[in-house]
């Protein structure tokens, strides 16, 4: 499979997701803020909501087998001894305060599935799992049990944010940026993704085009939007540093990117990434959070390469800059409609975080009713997930017909549990291939 993403809105042909698993049920109220959650999530309902979203993906995509579950990819990757050793080495280097070097032998001896369980679900889940296994072992297995008990006693929290695969990396053209998480709670995810890209055969096509930042710099995939093969938007947020953007720009501009628009956004929880307040819906439309983009100016700089140096130029407004470097006129559709109180409420529940499956075919949480009304006013037909599947699920879905102004679709899916994690449809997807519309 060739990995290539040259637009936010081209037809989705390959995507990496993580359907919620037991890691959510191991998040206790006392640790939720440390793990970047505002609330605890009910695993069963969150999984059902996520699977509804994936049902739409598989209807629209040409090949539904190219919806890849990241846990399965990790499991396949860990079948390689070299991959497990690389992962453990990186863990030990990244978390020097944990006595991981003392249990290196035990980590290396774990079955791939057990190493993955310990990594994703944490030490409490691992302890319960190993206790269940020990009851099935013969007495000769007691020495092994003692070593595993030592491993289980190292306090490792679960990583519930794995749900948001978008933040782990970004495929841009035929290059891939490996995100460097800004918070300790997500560093294990960064190491997992690093290992996956370097060792899983799915990523062989981009193995020589990996962009990786040094430890002191950060960038996360939710801040990276691909406007075109030549233009990238990057948010300077609480999670992505300007230094990280500059470092990534050096490599991106050797791969065909001509301009990077760096947008300074509020450094706060509600706007942790650019895609929480700005996303693309069609070739000429974006969904935005108005209080940031209608009232704030002089918060954009254009990075371009001239004479082997990166030149930084200021721009007055994101819409002006976007139109300048694409040659298109854009319509900004308001998350939450026209009323400030609804804009704030629906941005909090990811109304601006829509995900394009094809030009003019987008998904978002159905609870953001004012956002969907605004989309309807701009020519979108609103369908709930079950309505879309009833109409298109048994047919050969022709996604290209929805490119026209009169056939755009906005699909709403339930996210009453998922939205507690502070991420929408775009946050929960890592596209690795998009196919341009036929001419």
List keywords for this structure.
alpha/beta; L-arginine/glycine Amidinotransferase, Chain A; 2 domains; 5-stranded mixed β-sheet; 4-stranded mixed β-sheet
Question: What is the class of the largest domain in the CATH system?
Answer: Alpha Beta
Q: In terms of structural class, how would the helical and strand content be classed? A: alpha/beta
Main pleated-sheet profile:
5 strands, mixed
CATH architecture of the largest domain: 5-stranded Propeller
The fraction of residues assigned to DSSP E strands is 15-25%
* Unreliable segments of 5+ consecutive residues: 136-143
End-to-end Cα distance, whole Å, is 23 Å
The CATH topology of the largest domain corresponds to L-arginine/glycine Amidinotransferase, Chain A
Question: What gross morphology would you assign?
Answer: globular
Widest beta sheet: strand line-up: 6-7-8-11-12
Cα Rg: 22 Å
DSSP E strands, number: 18
Query: What is the CATH superfamily label of the largest domain?
Result: L-arginine/glycine Amidinotransferase, Chain A
Walkthrough of the structure:
- The chain is built from 14 helices and 18 strands.
- It has 439 residues and is α/β, with parallel strands linked by helices.
- The chain folds into 2 domains: 11-73 and 160-435, 5-stranded Propeller (L-arginine/glycine Amidinotransferase, Chain A), CATH 3.75.10; 74-152, no CATH class.
- The strands form 5 sheets. Strands 6-7-8-11-12 form a 5-stranded mixed sheet, sandwiched between helices. The protein has a 4-stranded mixed sheet with strand order 14-15-17-16, sandwiched between helices.
- The longest helix is centred in the first third of the chain and has 18 residues, at 43-60.
- The protein starts with 10 loop residues before the first strand and ends with a strand.
- Mean pLDDT is 89; it is low at 136-143.
């Amino acid at each position: 499979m060739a990995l290539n993403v040259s637009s936010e809105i081209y037809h989705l042909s390959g995507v990496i997701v993580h359907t919620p698993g037991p890691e959510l049920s191991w998040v206790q109220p006392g640790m939720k803020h440390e793990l970047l959650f505002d609330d605890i999530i009910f695993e069963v309902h969150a999984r059902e909501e996520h699977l509804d979203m994936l049902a739409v993906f598989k209807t629209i995509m040409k090949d539904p087998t190219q919806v890849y579950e990241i846990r399965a990819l990790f499991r396949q990757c860990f079948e390689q001894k070299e991959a497990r050793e690389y992962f453990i080495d990186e863990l030990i280097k990244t978390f020097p305060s944990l006595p991981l070097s003392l249990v290196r032998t035990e980590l290396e001896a774990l079955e791939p599935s057990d190493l993955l369980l310990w990594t994703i679900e944490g030490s409490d889940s691992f302890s319960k799992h190993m206790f269940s296994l020990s009851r099935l072992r013969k007495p000769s297995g007691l020495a092994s049990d003692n070593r595993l008990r030592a491993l289980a006693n190292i306090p490792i929290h679960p990583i519930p944010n794995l749900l948001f695969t978008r933040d782990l990396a970004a495929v841009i053209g035929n290059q891939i940026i490996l995100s460097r998480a800004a918070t300790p709670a997500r560093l294990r995810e960064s190491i997992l993704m690093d290992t996956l890209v370097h060792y899983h055969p799915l990523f062989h096509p981009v193995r020589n085009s990996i962009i990786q930042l040094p430890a002191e710099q950060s960038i996360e995939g939710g801040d990276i939007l691909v406007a075109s093969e030549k233009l990238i938007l990057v948010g300077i947020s609480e999670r992505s540093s300007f230094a990280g953007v500059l470092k990534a720009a050096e490599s991106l501009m050797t791969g065909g990117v001509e301009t990077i628009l760096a947008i300074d956004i509020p450094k706060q929880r509600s706007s942790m990434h650019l895609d929480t307040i700005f996303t693309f819906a069609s070739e000429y439309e974006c969904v935005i959070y108005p209080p940031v983009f209608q009232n704030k100016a002089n918060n954009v700089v254009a990075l371009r390469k001239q004479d082997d140096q990166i030149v930084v130029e200021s721009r007055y407004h994101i819409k002006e800059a976007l139109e300048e470097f694409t040659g298109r006129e854009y319509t900004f559709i308001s998350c939450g409609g026209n009323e400030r109180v609804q804009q704030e409420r629906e941005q909090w529940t990811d109304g601006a975080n829509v995900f394009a499956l094809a030009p003019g075919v987008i998904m978002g949480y159905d609870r953001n009713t004012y956002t969907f009304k605004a989309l309807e006013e701009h020519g979108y037909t609103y369908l709930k997930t079950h309505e879309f599947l009833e109409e298109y699920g048994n047919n050969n879905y022709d996604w290209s017909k929805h490119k026209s102004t009169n056939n755009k679709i906005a699909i709403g899916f339930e996210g009453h549990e998922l939205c507690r994690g502070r991420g929408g449809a775009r946050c929960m997807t890592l596209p690795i291939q998009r196919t341009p519309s036929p001419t």
